[in-house]
Amino acid sequence: MAKYELIIKGGTVVDPSQSIHERQDVAFNYGKVAAVEPDISDNLANEIVDATDAIVTPGLVDLHVHVYWGVGHYGIEADPTQVAQGVTTAVDAGSAGAWTFPAFRRYVMERSATRLYALLNISSMGMISPKIGELEDLRWADVEDATSVGRANPDHILGIKVRLSQPLTADHDVDSLKRAIEAAEELGKFVMIHVGNSFTPMHELVGMLRPGDVVTHAYHGSAHGAMDDSGRVYDGIVEAQKRGVVFDIGHGRGSFSFALAEKALAQNFLPDNISSDLHIYNIEGPVHDQLSTLSKFLHLGLSLDEVIRLSTSATAKTIGHADEIGTLKPGAEGDATVMRVSEGKFTFVDSLDATVEGSRELEHVATIRGGKLYKPYLW
Ligand SMILES: [Zn+2]
Predict the structure, then answer these.
(1) 107 with 48, same domain?
(2) Does residue 378 form part of some domain?
(3) CA of 91 to the centre of ligand 1 (A)
């Protein structure tokens, strides 16, 4: 019997969790990472994945997606859009609320090859209707319902999501956030707030957050953003980041601006995490997938190692799973992404339909999930 089930051969391993950026082979056994070594013999494995001229990273983690197909109106199918595109772990950010979560767990989370976690929407209905804001009526923000579902699903629910845009919350965004924090406190978990066009300015909302809470859509170009009219990042935002509030990208259909990103990076307001907010309204553009989102940050000048860190070890730490995922340390979950850095001319589009020309793009080659090559037709 072979010593390993699978070996990824000949690639350049980029694993920021271990500060590795060098030519290494990676071996998997019993669903876990078994070894990262310079030259592991072919004879030791049942299956070889050739990664010559490719990059091998820990399986990508996307902190913000919507995969409640058929119920959440944003929902896309998880596996074709996540694991098949290199994302081995994805967090559904608020598609389900207390009354819609049980079916999400049974029919989506438990049936997907992608490792899925959820942020429970403080609105008990979740994000089911494009016509009714989920917090227009505060009776939907039921702390007791959210905490009882959170308590019943401690391994599936990572925290509480609340969307704070005026069409969704009317003028009671602060009260909605208070309820989300109350539920999260009860559960001992974090809150993710969605910002953009909020009634209350973002730099005031983030003042209510605790270290470890997440702001998604950090570089949104809508009203009440991270910067004042002169393009300067508000002190309240800088202070929140210093206190340990996590600023996430959440590209989405309306929430990522190249112009704003450039200004933010120039002022050293860097993202703590890069996520796609992939959903039905942006999968055909401008988001496409997580690798395209990461490519945009390569274009903005972040190093390859930093871009990978912001979608592997940094994300795993934010969700409290840094020992098991987002790393190729032996003993960690056997998840890896093989990708190529293609050189050429690429057009990238942001959420405001602004375009830039880039020279490098990350291209998916293969995904290893649970120590096996992901082959949808065999799963
Ligand atoms: Zn979202």
Answers:
(1) no
(2) no
(3) 10
Same domain, 163 and 228: yes
Give a yes or no: residue 299 inside a domain. yes
Q: pTM surpassing 0.85?
A: yes
The alpha-helical segments, DSSP class H, found in the chain are: 78-81, 101-107, 143-152, 166-169, 173-187, 202-205, 235-243, 258-266, 290-299, 304-309, 313-318
In a domain, 86, yes or no: yes
Q: From ligand 1's centre to the CA of 311, what distance in Å?
A: 16
Residue 253 CA, ligand 1 centroid: distance in Å? 9
Q: How far is the CA of 273 from the centre of ligand 1 (A)?
A: 14
Per-chain residues with Cβ under 5 A from ion ligand 1: 93, 277
**Each residue of 170-226: pLDDT tens digit?**
999 999 999 999 999 999 999 999 999 999 999 999 999 999 999 999 999 899 999
Would you tell me how many other CB atoms lie within 10 Å of the CB of residue 42?
Answer: 10
Give me ligand 1 centre to Cα 325, in Å: 22
Length of the chain: 379
Q: Tell me how far the alpha carbon of residue 252 lies from the centroid of ligand 1, in angstroms.
A: 7
CA 285 to chain centre: 17
Give 112 Cα–ligand 1 centroid separation in angstroms: 20
